[in-house]
Amino acid sequence: MSSLSGKVMELSDIERKLLAALSIKQISLDEASIASGVPIDSVRRASAWLNEKGFAVVLENESESLGLTSDGEKALLKGMPENVLLETLSRLGGKSTFAELEKESGLSKQEFMAALGINKRKAFVVIMQGTISETGVAKQENFSEQNYLRDIFDKKKIPQNLSAELLKRGLAEKKKSVERLIKISPQGEEAKELLSKENIARAFDVSAPVPEIFMGKKAPYIQFLQQIRQKLVSLGFKEMDTKLIVTEFYNFDVLFQPQNHPARTWTDTYQLKNPKKGALPEKKFVDAIKAAHENGGKAKSKGWGYEWSFDIASRLMPSAHGTAHSARQLIRGVEFPRKYFAIARCFRPDVLDATHLIEFNQMEGFIVGEDLNFRHLLGMLKDFAIEVAGAEKVKFFPDYYPFTEPSVQLSAKHPELGWIEFAGAGMFRPEMLQNLGIKGEAIAWGMGIDRLAMFKLGIKDIRYLFSEDLNYLRNAKGVLL
Question: Can you tell me the distance from the alpha carbon of 104 to that of 81, in angstroms, rounded to the nearest whole number?
């Protein structure tokens, strides 16, 4: 097989049709489209391909023509500014002040002054003592500029002196255009003759590499969060609404964390500069929490034994943990028995590293019921870590939280990072539940869902959950819990 035959075999259908319509005479692409019966967009592609393969020659012919500006198009539609001015002046009785004439004509300041200058130069108007008057000469004048604007619009040539005037006035502009012409090359003539004599089928190289196509999909971490949400809802959990900004009342006070606790300082939490304060709920809830802190309230407790401050409780802050939303739910009221959860955005002034973020997510939840105990909580946390996160080993450690007793910390072993803490849990204290009129028991947890996702996605740096690395996002496998 000759090299020419091999090239001809690679020609597409639109290339073959265009080649058959070409000759040594240069024609425009529009003419080539008509001659070949190929749509103009396909002719543009085929001409570039034939030129690249040496079967055709594509030339570019640059030209300059006169076109209308936006002001020129406006003048063509509504009339030349000088005509508009004269017609308005005639309508006003042939005499008017500057201000009145400009307003009634609807011309811009620039158009009005230009039109006035032209009419004054042609002696169509006179200006005396601040007024403009007709002279009557304009009735004998043939206003030809309007016709020339039409000629420009219709791509006709106009006298050079008039085109210069219209360019100067900004009614016309010079526009450059490029016309592409095509003709057959000597090699193209050989290919055309070969195609006319032999029925050469197009050849396809099925082993040739093709561009990789990446389908649209959600980021792996978003998939993980949505599946966690769906799984919890299917298990009967009710999702709580969450807010980025809460008062310290919900973030700390409802959770029985004293107002002088070091975790409430600026070194451990963020606070808003403006606005600084937010509204507290109904007085009965505020009074109940105040009593819990000062003397234990309705619970069999001594409380913290200090004077509780409304001012501190009303301070606004970005939520430091998901339990703030459990506190909001307890105030709003809970069904009994019922399971609740929230996936919440949290903020803490921490040091960024492979397992810590300043802005992160927590999966918060609690269950209220009659016969709940600590063993229920431990079993649920272990199942969640192993079955959902895929952790191979888990450990429980005693811990302390002001709002739970007993309290526990859950850690799981990451294959590369070792043991990582990703949940704190416990049973809500009676100072919380009893003072809010909630009977029974409540087991609660706050889980670092970001760290949980690290296990499932096989990521060793928590920051990669929010990565903008396209290579990682395109090649990451889908998540399946």
Answer: 13
**Where exactly does CATH 3.30.930.10 map onto the chain?**
220-475
Q: Quick one: CA torsion of 249, 252, 255, 259, rounded to 10 degrees?
A: -100
CA–CA separation, 172 vs 75, rounded Å? Answer: 11
Say if domain 68-171 classifies as CATH 1.10.10.10. yes
Residue 34 makes CB contacts below 8 A (sequence gap 6+) with: none
The third-level CATH classification (topology) of the domain covering 220-475 is BirA Bifunctional Protein; domain 2 (3.30.930)
Q: Which residues of 90-112 are buried (b: 16+ CB within 10 A; e: fewer)?
A: eebeeebeeeebbeebebeeebb
Q: Which H helix or E strand runs over 230?
A: helix 220-234
CB atoms within 10 A of CB 27: 16
The CATH number of 3-65+177-197 is 1.10.10.10
Report CA 473 to chain centroid distance, whole Å: 17
**Tokens coding 7:** 């090239």
Q: For residues 311 and 451, is the Cβ–Cβ distance under 8 A?
A: no
Q: Are 364 and 448 spatial neighbours (Cβ–Cβ below 8 Å)?
A: no
Contacts with 265 (C-beta within 8 Å, 6 or more apart), sequence order: none
Strands 125-128 and 316-318 come out as: unpaired
pLDDT score, position 481: 61
> The pTM is what?
0.58
CB 53 within 8 A of CB 145: no
Peptide bond before residue 415 is cis, with ω within 30 degrees of 0: no
Compute the distance between CA of residue 59 and CA of residue 183 in angstroms, rounded to an integer: 8
Give the Cα separation of 78 and 73 in Å (integer). Answer: 9
pLDDT digits (tens, 9 = 90+) for 68-94: 888 888 888 888 888 888 889 888 988
Going through 402-449 in order, the beta strands assigned E by DSSP cover 404-414, 418-428, 441-447
Question: What is the spatial distance between Cα 244 and Cα 346, in angstroms, rounded to a whole number?
Answer: 7
